[in-house]
Structure formats: C-alpha cells, structure tokens
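Re: that chain you flagged

S.,

Sorry for the slow reply, it's been a week of failed gels. I finally had a moment to sit down with the sequence you sent. For the record, here it is as I used it:
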Amino acid sequence: MSDLDIGEVAAQSGLPASTLRYYETKGLIHPVGRNGLRRQYRADVIQTLGLITLGRDAGFSLNEVAAMFAADGQPDINRKRLNAKADELDETIKRLSAVRDGLRCVAGCSAPSHLECPSFLRLIAAATKGRKRKSLRDYR
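Prediction finished late last night. Pasting the structure tokens below so you have them in one place:
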C-alpha cells in the first residue's frame, strides 16, 4: 500500500483537512511523514477514520472514541460500552419518535391556532414541566 497525502485522505474519507489535523492533535490518527508541506498517512487511515465517524454518529465523544483504540492504534472496543450506547440510542429513538408523533398530531389539528390545539398545549406543558421526554407520547 502506498501512502496517501492529506488531500487524498480528505477526498476519500469525506472529511476536511482541518478535521484530519484536529484528529491528529487528539491522537486519533498519525501521519507517517511529509512530502513537502503535505502530511502523509498510511492507507489504512481511511478505515480508522471510518471507525471514528461511526463512533461519532453513534454519539460517542472524541475522548470515548480515542479510548476505543489501543496504544498501537488498533481498535480495542469494549462490547459492554457498545451495548450501553445501543441502549441509549434506543431511548433517544423512543423520545424522538414521541416528539415526531406529537408534531404530526399538532400539524393535523383543526384548531385555528397552534395555541388553541389541546395536543400542542399538552406538549408545551410536558416540556415546560421538565417531564421525561420519552413520556410525551402520553400527552397526545
């Protein structure tokens, strides 16, 4: 495998060069050298960036993602942590589904104003009182 310069890595990964440089400062990726002023990376950095992106998409912080790599840069992912994050995502999906359903209900409400819609008023009351968002479905 030949090395890739920062522009090639940016093009293949879809991440801007500034993000690559930031990940470098966080210790997530490491250049193997330079060609002139351009950083050079091993080709397997694309897979590492995919793992980082997947972790970020799942809601892991960069520090949490960094902890998923061993000192040699190879993935060392705790399965319990993955299951815990999956459980968090399930709760988020439930909460957002309830919000979506509430919004659709309000959008179809025949009241002349949203502030006259009983469903909308219940949603506002639930949000204002700090109730658990997953229970918003109960206010439709």
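What I noticed first: Residues 79-107 form the longest helix (29 residues).

Talk soon,
D.
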